[in-house]
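README: folding subset

This subset contains proteins for which both the sequence and a predicted structure token string are available. Records are stored as plain text. Below is the entry for Pyridoxamine kinase/Phosphomethylpyrimidine kinase domain-containing protein (1117 residues), shown exactly as it appears on disk.
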Amino acid sequence: MASDGVQALPADLWHLITAELADRAIQAESQELARPEYAALCNCILSSKFLASAGALVALYRIALHDRSPVKGGGGENISFAEQDVMVMKWSVLWRTIVLSTLGKTFYPYCRHLRGLDLRDLSWLLDRLDEPKFRGKVAKQFFAGDLSRFHILIETPAKTPAKTRAARLDIKKILLAVGDKITKHSPLLEELLEPSTSDVLITALPTWTPRLEHLRALEFWDGKLLADETIRNLLHVHCPNLAHLQLFLSTDPESDHHLALFINGLQHNNLLTFENNSTCNIGQETCMALNNHGRSLFELKLGLEEQGMLALGLLKDMTALKTLHITGFKQSADLKATQNDVFRDIVEWLRGCTMLADVSFDNILSAPDLMIPILEEGSARLRHLSVTGKEGSLYVLKDHHHFHRALKHQLNLESLVLRADPDPVSRDDIEILMATITSLKQLKRLDLFRTSDYFSNDQIIQLAQSLPMLETLYIGGYGISDAVLHSVAHLANLRSVTFAGITAFTTDGLLDFVNKLPDRQSGLVIAVEMADPDSMIPEEGQKLIADSLATKVGGRFEYQPLRASNHQVFDRYTCGHTAKVLWRHHDVRALQFEALQSPNACSRPPNSSIMKRILVIAGSDSSGGAGLEADQKAIAAHRCYAMTATTALTAQNTQGVSGIHETPPDFVRKQIDACVADIGVDVVKTGMLASAETVNLVAESLQKYELGVSVVDPVMVATSGAQLLPEKAVKVLCDRLLPVTFLLTPNIPEANLILKEAGEAPVEVNDKEGLKRLAAAVQRLGPKHVLLKGGHLPLTAGGKLAKSAEDKKFVANVLTGPDFDEVVELPYQESRNTHGTGCTLASAIACRLAEGYRIDRAVRMACRYVEAGIKTSVDLGRGSGPLNHFHSTQSLPFPPDGFIQYLLEREDVQPAWHDYTHHEFVQQMGDGTLPPETFKYYMIQDYLYLVQFARANALAGYKAKTLDDIAGAAQIVTHIRHEINLHISECQEFGLSQADVEQHEESQACTAYTRYVLDIGQSEDWLALQVALLPCLLGYGMIAQRLHEMQVTHPPNQPNRYLSWINNYIAEDYTEAVKKGRDLIEKHAVKQSPSRVEELVAIFIHATKMETGFWNMAASA
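--- output ---
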């Protein structure tokens, strides 16, 4: 290392230098920012054995251990595809070097310097090497030579043809083999991390544990391994220094007991950190065991269910905590109101934690009340505080003034995250919150998601002027404009700002903001998440802003309009260019676990960013209205990825088919094989198959590739009447394809043709019941589910075959299968634009199935999509025209006259709506078991409610702008007057006069509901008031109709005392009032922006919950 006349630096000084480089990299905020230090250490190692042994190698692996290696995990997300390829190659070299060193095949024994064995990272690498993109060169290089012993493949069944056999890596066996080598040759291992995709440690720990005498940190996926007494004892004996424990979940039914046994067996006051990320059934035993580490444990992160929350007060001896994170997996109860003893115990425990600096509560409704004593007393000086939750578990902004004022005592706070329900909100609520936040001068991070929904420009300007230390700002609001940008630009330390409210920024305003930024704000990220669609910045403006920000400070600009929450944006302007989406490794088991825990798991999938892949095997339509062209449009509109295997070319237009050119079946097979082998398939959708040979090979492909989810549209005749499938092919379809079909979607003629070819008698269809019989008959031929399309048979209002145009009221699609037997009814539309409806419907269903929706939900959503496509279509051609496939990207998420239907089918509405319309109070009225005294109290309160309800409708008339709308409001008020008279009659039967009723005091539930509606009427527009009134108007009619049907299907044992109430709400005058109210709302809803629709949905949900509260009030009287 010495040059002539220059003395080499001593080794101990090099140790200090390399240690400093490692510290800087570890403290970097991302892998990308750690690159310079990592590169410097790499160059040291490559240039000199002396430098490698003088600390550079140890420092390099310290960086890797702390997830800051720029090549670990593939290099991070903010890199191009080309860089990603290079990073994956470097990533593989990193691991190859480590493994080779365990075999003694490297010049320097790298493995002996390892402090951590991250099998999770190795698992992710193997996943990438198993992708077709890397399975060639990179994977071959990784497993070349001495590492060939680790190239272990999953055994393929012998019956699978060699040409089609996918040689997939057996990742679990590879991890076990590599881990065994590393644990043998890395004596200093301090950390062991298990991947979530393989239960490696439950197999490996009995062998590995005696080698891990320096182990200090253990992270494993499933706590069931602690149910093994042998593993527990081995860890106790051989790993006395174990101080950090993390597990994701536990499938062990006695996990609380076994986890407690393990923690109790550790040397007391040795555990420093404990964390569980998901359901582990932690309860009293684990909490008591953790107390044995009360003087040492400084970081506790718990994910709890109800029994765990109730046990928190037992942690009274755990007072050395500096970090405390508590997450509730289900909506928690208000402990102060329902479990006051438990609440006080938890408060006393927290009071004793005087060293707390970082506190986080997620999904814990009582969190603000639990924190008030700690905040006010000031014994703990917090630096980070987070109180968040899911919808339904957010604390209510207006009810927690005490909590917000208490925050003023924590002047050392550097990070504050508050997520509260701001509805309803007053000026006082906002001013109290603002007074506190603006006093916290040390804040570097401020996140007010949802809490700030009603902030305006003034509040954002005040925050920016009052908090000079801010580095990260996440803020909502409405009507946010360029006026805020001047103040935000003067935040000298700002690194990231997200405007998550309704914004109306301009190109000039944002460009001026960028120009005012000081040069030192390197890497600033500006995100506009909910731009008002009515004033969006055009794409060229977005690109100009992004280029300017990238040039000025190397920053990134992200911009997207307000849209439905499950819509995904697949490109955004980043550093002046369109950044491609980088699909990274996803923890499949974690997603599955979250889906199982979700209350909507039965109908809605987890929100995954992985694009779903649909393989369409069908014919081409030269006019673009049907066939592959319609399929690809529908799939693109659903933001899925379409692949095609073309079975035939057709010469056709809107007037008919003039020619068909079949694709040779062998070539169809090659197309299918190519797609499956490379990209993969989530769902198969078939259309025109053209020949018996093609039908046969499709059936073979479904079986060969085990493609279990298929949507088969048995295209036999075009809309124009042309024959598209020879009769001999129908027989093959019945014999070969139907038995392996997941969902078959025939229309009525196709269904009867299938029955005929199968030797079954056709089913005559004259009504809705006939449709059900026909669907069931086809389903018995083999497909798991059948969706019979009833568009060929418009029905009357009574469900009979329509004889005239005037009688055509609706069409019915019948879904039948082992778990479902239901009818999807759609209003009949007189339209000539129906070319390709069958193709479009089947492809829409395929997309929804690929996304994880249950089949009944997928079918309903697809039917609505097609309905809107017909309604919004434009006339093209002189015959049967095409649908509008892209209506959902051009307009509102519902068709004309479809707002209320859309509203009731939304996932965030359905739980609240079901709680309201199926309340126990309602059920007891239906079966006649409701106590008369309970009903009496309800009628009194409902009378008082109706008086305010009439006032609200009168206010709606005042706010209306047309005579028709005024008359509509007046008609509803007239009916309310009639309804009140019926209430008076009911009360007279209880011996109460009108004067007696009016002297009663309003219940809190009644007052809260009516004043909420009136407040909406005062502060919002006419439509918002109508939506706030809608749950009452619509719900009572739906409830009464269901209870009326109950009297027929499940008649009470005795005459139902409440029959007059039921009949009142199914009477013609009430149903007419409901229709008038619906029509008024539908007329105006279609004129709203998407952002306004979301606001109306929130009002509807809140008012619906108020209705449920009214039932609760009556039931508990």
